[in-house]
Amino acid sequence: MTEYKQVTVLFADVVKSMDLAAAMDAERWQQIITSLAERSAAVARRRGGRVDFTGDGVMAIFGAPKALEDHAFRGCQAALESRSRLGGWPKTSECTTESTSRCVSE
């Protein structure tokens, strides 16, 4: 049976990551991206998000597969905490949260 849930999705990635990558050693760049993604993912997981890695960023879903009444609040908390913990470098994109009322939960 298909179940629909309202969720919040958080996307966070590095602005102009390819320009930054071109300006430094590939191994060092990989270390930086891995560290940023792992720190952002840890914050999202603490807030109840399910995390997927997206190249130079993170996508976190709040409210699926387990329904969360406060999914939007948790997503916003995760976005603000991630930005705070990253200290402003490299500049991360606007942390965007989006809600939808039609998410299929598996």
Summarize the structure.
This protein has 106 residues and is of the alpha+beta class.
Give the secondary structure arrangement, pairings included.
Elements: E1 3-13, H1 17-22, H2 26-46, E2 50-54, E3 57-62, H3 71-86, E4 96-105
Antiparallel strand pairs: 1-3, 1-4, 2-3
Structure characterization notes:
This protein is an alpha+beta fold and 106 residues long. A 4-stranded antiparallel beta sheet has the order 2-3-1-4. The longest helix has 21 residues. The chain is elongated.
Unreliably modeled segments: 92-97, 100-106
- Counting DSSP E segments of at least 2 residues, the number of strands comes to 4
Distance between the termini: 9 Å
Structural class: alpha+beta
How much strand? 25-35%
Please give the count of helices.
Answer: 3
Overall pLDDT metric: 80
* Major sheet: arrangement of strands: 2-3-1-4
Largest sheet: 4 strands, antiparallel
Helix and strand pattern = EHHEEHE
Helix percent band: 40-55%
Using the alpha-carbon principal axes, give the shape: elongated
Radius of gyration: 15 Å
Keywords:
106 residues; alpha+beta; 4-stranded antiparallel β-sheet; 3 helices; 4 strands; 30% strand; elongated; disordered C terminus
